[in-house]
Amino acid sequence: MHPNLTNGIDVALLVFWAFVLFFICLVFYLRREDRREGYPLEDEMSGRIDTPGGVLSTASPKSFRLPFGHGTVVAPVGPTEGREPVNIAARRTEGFGGAPYVPTGNPLVDGVGPAAWANRAKRPDLDMEGHPRIIPLAKAAGFSIAREDADLSGWPVVGADGAVAGHVGGLWIDTADRLVRYIQLAGEGAPLLAPMMMASVDRRRRRVVIDALKAAQFAGVPRLEADDQITLYEEERVQAYFGGGYLYATADRQEPIL
User: Facing residues of 183 across strands?
Assistant: First the structure.
């Protein structure tokens, strides 16, 4: 086959322009598809919910079937559909876009800054077989702490101020990833969990240090509804509470380093 189709067009030129057209279409497709989660946007100054128009900013709704019979999810949603009203106890320090917010209530639970949380599903995260993947170690058949590691049961849990917030009453494990996710503090009532990833195990002094919070602030940790599972929504709240403590637990943590 002759490479020249006409005097001014050859096969290489056609392939090049076909690639350019494909790349332009790909950009349009990707920019529309990434509008499915986190949209519609909220105006930074007025709080008005609005989605930017235009071919690059509008994605047609799609339905996604969730596994294990959890229904379907449609994204993106309209300006008000599927949105729960949120009233965050915070105010702007200045009257311009991008100005920082300061909390006016309890920043550990009000969803401000590093303590922000999302309204995730009120059901547990599931493994490939459809079973809750994060459960108490005491109820996980076939799982145990390795002989080389400490069991931690009864060890004191110390806060950022050096005071004892409680004692380890149990461990919650991720049966899919084979690791400890949460430490449960001993006590009556609904389970109180602390993220293992924010804990430091002091083997020499046989204690667990969680410097995200002061000891007294552990009492405000969001509790679980069930004693044998944690929902995605509850995980968000627990993680946000401890994460926010790294900024809001003490007044000096909110001050400039220099």
Answer: 171, 194
